[in-house]
Amino acid sequence: MKIGVLALQGAFREHRWMLERLGAEGVEVRKPEDLDLVEGLVIPGGESTTIGKLLIEWGLMDKIRERAAAGLAIYGTCAGMILLAKEIVGSDQPRLGLMDVTVRRNAFGRQRESFEADLNVPEFGADPVRAVFIRAPYIEKAGPDVKVMAAVGDHIVIARQGKFLATAFHPELTNDDRIHKYFISMIRGQA
């Protein structure tokens, strides 16, 4: 199975390594034609406004939307969550707008307010998921077709809508591969 990792900015190598550890072939996506080779796409963290501008500049925005409409599974972490959102509080930055969620950027604070937390995620078993939040967003509002999978207090940090999965944190920076396994099962139609 080939899974693309958007390789414009952010921790794309760490996502590719995590996917490869799980037996998938990680494909770095930089051009629209790279998307024709993959069965799923991971959009890593980074700076969401920059990534959004690069998606347009490099001709990837429309191609990702086209593939998503045809059933491509997409997983966004941190900035990837922001790019998947239909609405971004206080911003008109470029976005894919694929998930019926409203996201707040840098919601937990600036870089110095970065933190780690243990999340209870029933879909991943009894053991908590260790989550690394770095200038993280959160979902402020989710539409009726969005499944909330975990929250920190009242703030949604994992959500799924059909073939789209979003986390506000960076699972690729830990050794816990359950979220990537779950995404692979989504691609296979098993989750």
The gyration radius over C-alpha positions equals: 15 Å
Judged by helices, strands and strand pairing, the structural class is: alpha/beta
Q: Averaged pLDDT, please? A: 92
Which CATH architecture is right?
A: 3-Layer(aba) Sandwich
Could you say what the CATH topology is called?
Rossmann fold
Overall shape:
globular
For the sheet with most strands, the description reads: 7 strands, mixed
- Count of structural domains: 1
Give unreliable regions as ranges: none
Helical proportion, percent range? 10-25%
Please tell me about this protein's structure.
It is a single chain. This protein has 191 residues and is an alpha/beta fold. It has one domain: Class I glutamine amidotransferase (GATase) domain (Rossmann fold, 3-Layer(aba) Sandwich). It is 24% helix and 32% strand. The chain contains 5 helices and 12 strands. The strands form 3 sheets. Strands 2-1-3-4-12-11-10 form a 7-stranded mixed beta sheet. A 3-stranded mixed beta sheet has the order 5-6-9. A two-stranded antiparallel ribbon has the order 7-8. Helix 1 links the parallel strand 1 and strand 2. The radius of gyration is 15 Å and the shape is globular. The protein starts with a strand and ends with a helix.
Index terms:
24% helix; 32% strand; seven-stranded mixed β-sheet; 191 residues; single chain; 5 helices; Rossmann fold; alpha/beta; globular; three-stranded mixed β-sheet
Topology, element by element:
Layout: E1 2-6, H1 12-21, E2 25-29, E3 40-43, H2 48-57, H3 60-69, E4 73-77, H4 79-84, E5 85-88, E6 99-104, E7 115-119, E8 129-133, E9 138-142, E10 147-152, E11 155-161, E12 164-167, H5 178-187
Parallel strand pairs: 1-2, 1-3, 3-4, 4-12, 5-6
Antiparallel strand pairs: 6-9, 7-8, 10-11, 11-12
